[in-house]
């Protein structure tokens, strides 16, 4: 039997146990029935952010951004493409720093866009500035995603 991973649903925030061998099989949430991976970045609230980074057994890549930020908007399509490439081995998410100012302050986010990679609830890597899809995926993979 393969090892089960904890995967937090991006829709209802329920923690699911998914056998590692079945990650590629498009698993659904046991509670809400929606897909655990959509191939798109997950928009996180402050509560969902904590739950995703603390309870997920897979790495969580977070784009700290704001709606008024030109480089953030410019990078958004590339980040969406990166989600298609990185999932299901990585949860790809976005956190609006205007709506979650306390989290941005706690993680000392000084410029946006900033990508941060979390594993086991801890930040393991950070990169500020807009990147293209190849840069995002290469950076994430080079840091263990």
UniProtKB/TrEMBL annotation:
Keywords: Disulfide bond, Electron transport, Metal-binding, Redox-active center, Transport. GO terms for cellular component: cytosol. The keyword Nucleotidyltransferase does not apply. Pfam families: Thioredoxin, Zn_ribbon_Thio2. Residues 12-145 form the Thioredoxin domain. InterPro entries: Thio2_N, Thioredoxin, Thioredoxin-like_sf, Thioredoxin_CS, Thioredoxin_domain. CDD domains: TRX_family. The keyword Transport applies. One of its GO terms (biological process) is cell redox homeostasis. GO terms for molecular function: metal ion binding; protein-disulfide reductase activity. Belongs to the thioredoxin family. This is Thioredoxin.
């Amino acid at each position: 039997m393969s090892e089960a991973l904890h995967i937090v649903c991006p829709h209802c925030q329920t923690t699911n146990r998914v056998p590692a061998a079945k990650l590629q099989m498009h698993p659904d949430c046991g509670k809400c029935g929606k897909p655990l991976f959509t191939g798109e970045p997950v928009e996180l609230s402050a509560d969902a952010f904590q739950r995703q980074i603390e309870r997920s057994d897979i790495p969580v890549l977070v784009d700290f951004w704001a709606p008024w930020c030109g480089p953030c908007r410019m990078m958004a399509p590339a980040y969406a493409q990166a989600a298609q490439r990185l999932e299901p081995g990585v949860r790809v998410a976005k956190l609006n720093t205007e709506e979650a100012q306390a989290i941005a302050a706690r993680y000392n986010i000084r410029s946006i866009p900033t990508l941060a990679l979390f594993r086991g609830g801890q930040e393991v890597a950070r990169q500020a500035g807009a990147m293209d899809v190849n840069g995002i995926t290469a950076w994430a993979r080079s840091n263990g995603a």
